[in-house]
Amino acid sequence: MSSPDRCPSPEQPHPTATPNNERPTLMPKVTRLGHVGLFVADPEIMMEFYSTFLGMTVTDRDERRVFLSSRPSEEHHEILLAKNLERHTDPQQLSFVVDSLADLRAFYAQIVERKYDIDHISNHGNALGCYFRDPEGNRVEVYWHTGIEWPQPFSEPIDLSLSEEELRSRLDEMVAA
Questions:
Q1: Residue pair 110/142 in contact by the 8 Å Cβ criterion
Q2: pTM of this structure
Q3: In terms of Cα–Cα distance, which of 68, 7, 66 is closest to 39?
Q4: What DSSP letter does each residue of 115-167 carry, written as one string?
Q5: What is the side-by-side order of every strand in the sheet holding 65-69?
Q6: Per-residue pLDDT for the chain (177 aa), expressed as one digit of tens each?
Q7: CA distance 139 to 93
Q8: Domains along the chain?
C-alpha cells in the first residue's frame, strides 16, 4: 500500500470518501487525460500556434471549433479550440512532452526567436520545462522527462541556452549531491 503522502499505485482502485465515516468504497479510476477544451477569441491564430509551432495535427474543424492531436492515430483530439468571445478559458497550464533534451532546446530557441513571452524555465529533477504564453496568453509548458526520480514539488531555474552536455552535467551533479 502507498504512504499517505504519495499517489496510490496505478494498479490499485482508489478509495472514495463516504458520508458518516462509512467504510470507503473502491471506485474505478480514469486511465489518462483525454482532451482539454479552451474557449478562444481567434481559432485561426490559435490553430496556427498549436499546429505549426507545437506540431499538433488538425484532425477536424468547422467555423467555430478546431480539434488537434499530437497522436492522431491514437487520440482524435487532445485539444479543442472553441470560439467564444464572451468566455475565456484560464487554465493553470497546458503541458506537452518532447522526446529529447535536444527537442526541448530547439523549442526553447524557437520560443525566443518568435518572442513568445517566457514565464520561467525550471529544472524539476524529473523533468526540465520551459513555460511560456501562447498567442492568447495561456501558459504552455514543453518539457522533457530526465529519467531521474525526484521528489515533487521541486523547481529551480535552469538555462536552456547551455549546451546539452552542460545541462546533463548539472543533472548528474544534482543526483550525486
A1: no
A2: 0.77
A3: 66
A4: T--EEEEEE-SSEEEEEEE-TTS-EEEEEEE-S----SS--EE--TTS-HHHH
A5: 36-40, 79-83, 65-69, 57-61
A6: 334 444 455 555 556 555 566 666 676 676 677 889 999 999 999 999 999 999 999 999 999 999 999 999 999 999 999 999 888 778 889 999 999 999 999 999 999 999 999 999 999 999 999 999 999 999 999 999 999 999 999 999 999 999 999 999 999 999 998
A7: 5
A8: 33-86 (3.10.180.10), 90-177 (3.10.180.10)
Joined grid coordinates for residue 145: 522527462
Grid cell in block for residue 175 = 543526483
